[in-house]
């Protein structure tokens, strides 16, 4: 519940510790993080460039992929630049309102990513189970509505968090034991009743992960049934092969979430840096690996890249 006294006393700035217990290794830890962030930037920007440049890729599957690439760019750029500033320059200060903005973008774009992965599962379901209706079902209008619905859902679910945190009294100091402004890390600095924040945060996370993942699994149950009914083995391989990239993206996104959730329950006494490293892995791994998955496994994108290299070599 909101505290009765609306006049909050929040610090002007927070201090982000980085990775507690591993401060002496920050410079070394930053090397793989910087490399992964660079790959994420190059990979997702390349995907967006290819999808925009090649008219043959202006299909529903690739439009959803462009949404995913955009979300991954924003998601990684919301946290990594500040994180690297902490590791390299010990620039630990972040203003109170900048912290809330970072939190809003972090959580809202994570929710959007889950929605887009669900939309891509729906795309594969229609393409394989109802191929004759693919172009009539997945129109530009429907894709736009799906994209808008993903944004509205994410913003609606995330907006209460920063507004709730604005009105709390922060009496436990300005030091956040994390390398970015994660909701629960900020809540730990609050004095007063934060039960609503705790319940709301867990409820939203469970609602998004469980509901979206349930519908993704349901889509693939129908897809698997349709694939197994195909006459030839070659046709079955070809049909299911169109899903491989999407399955890879799902695994790269949800596996770190599940591992982190299990670790929080099974290894509660583990050092704080274990949980924080898992949280960073969740933010950085999908944006880095998704362009590689789609670049390697998607023939149209691979062919366009090869044609670009051939032109340069001529």
From TrEMBL:
Q: Where in the cell is it found?
A: Cell membrane; Membrane
Gene Ontology cellular-component terms listed: plasma membrane
A Gene Ontology molecular function term of the record: olfactory receptor activity
Q: What is this protein called?
A: Olfactory receptor
Query: Lineage of this protein's species?
Result: Eukaryota, Metazoa, Chordata, Craniata, Vertebrata
Cited function: Odorant receptor.
Recorded hits in PROSITE patterns, A to Z, give: G_PROTEIN_RECEP_F1_1, G_PROTEIN_RECEP_F1_2
- What is the predominant subcellular site recorded for this chain? membrane
Kindly state which keywords UniProt assigns to this record, in alphabetical order: Cell membrane, G-protein coupled receptor, Membrane, Olfaction, Receptor, Sensory transduction, Transducer, Transmembrane, Transmembrane helix
Q: Which family does it belong to?
A: Belongs to the G-protein coupled receptor 1 family.
Q: Pfam family of this protein, just one? A: 7tm_4
The transmembrane residues are: 25-50, 62-88, 94-122, 142-165, 199-223, 235-254, 274-296
The membrane topology term of the UniProt record is: Multi-pass membrane protein
Show where the G-protein coupled receptors family 1 profile domain sits: 43-294
């Amino acid at each position: 519940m909101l505290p009765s006294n609306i006049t909050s006393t929040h610090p002007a700035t927070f201090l982000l510790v980085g990775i507690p217990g591993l401060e002496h290794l920050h410079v070394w830890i930053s090397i793989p993080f910087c490399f992964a962030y660079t790959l994420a930037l190059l990979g997702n920007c390349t995907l967006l460039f290819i999808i925009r440049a090649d008219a043959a890729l202006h299909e529903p599957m690739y439009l959803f992929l462009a949404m995913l690439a955009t979300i991954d760019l924003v998601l990684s750029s919301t946290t990594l630049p500040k994180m690297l500033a902490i590791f390299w320059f010990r620039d630990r200060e972040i203003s109170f309102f900048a912290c809330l903005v970072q939190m809003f973008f972090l959580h809202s774009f994570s929710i959007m990513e889950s929605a887009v992965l669900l939309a891509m599962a729906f795309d594969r379901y229609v393409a394989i189970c109802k191929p004759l209706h693919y172009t009539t079902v997945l129109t530009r209008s429907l894709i736009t509505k799906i994209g808008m619905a993903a944004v509205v859902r994410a913003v609606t679910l995330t907006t209460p968090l920063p507004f709730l945190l604005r009105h709390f009294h922060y009496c436990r100091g300005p030091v956040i034991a994390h390398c970015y402004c994660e909701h629960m890390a900020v809540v730990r600095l609050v004095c007063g009743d934060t039960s609503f924040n705790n319940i709301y945060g867990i409820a939203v996370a469970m609602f998004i992960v469980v509901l979206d993942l349930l519908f993704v699994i349901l889509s693939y149950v129908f897809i698997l049934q349709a694939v197994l009914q195909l006459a030839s083995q070659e046709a079955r391989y070809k049909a299911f092969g169109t899903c491989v990239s999407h399955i890879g993206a799902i695994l790269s996104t949800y596996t770190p979430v599940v591992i982190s959730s299990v670790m929080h329950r099974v290894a509660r006494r583990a050092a704080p840096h274990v949980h924080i490293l898992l949280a960073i892995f969740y933010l950085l791994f999908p944006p880095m690996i998704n362009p590689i998955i789609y670049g390697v496994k998607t023939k149209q994108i691979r062919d366009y890249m090869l044609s670009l290299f051939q032109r340069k070599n001529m």
